């Protein structure tokens, strides 16, 4: 950076740079403040839950579907051991015995599975 020079009084004499504003203060440039907001969402249950989809980067209410899991087979085995053979298929029809799959309604990807057992 070159300093401005004055030739009015003889040889070249460097002059001090003038401040940018009239009061003599030099503005200070600060880095922007970044605020990170973290949402703590409840763990999934057997119903639709608020979740954050890591695939489409949205906070969503999950879409649920039910699938036969370990709890269903355990209840069927218990009914078999008790001798209730005609009732063994009932746990396969009850959503309260099945595992719950949580899907994103926007990108249709599996987000989490709620296992009963």
From TrEMBL:
GO terms for molecular function: zinc ion binding. This is LITAF domain-containing protein. It is found in: Endosome membrane; Late endosome membrane; Lysosome membrane. Residues 31-116 form the LITAF domain. Belongs to the CDIP1/LITAF family. GO terms for cellular component: cytoplasmic side of late endosome membrane; cytoplasmic side of lysosomal membrane; nucleus. PANTHER family: LIPOPOLYSACCHARIDE-INDUCED TUMOR NECROSIS FACTOR-ALPHA FACTOR (PTHR23292), LIPOPOLYSACCHARIDE-INDUCED TUMOR NECROSIS FACTOR-ALPHA FACTOR HOMOLOG (PTHR23292:SF45). Pfam families: zf-LITAF-like (PF10601). The keyword Membrane applies. Residues 1-20 are annotated as: Disordered.
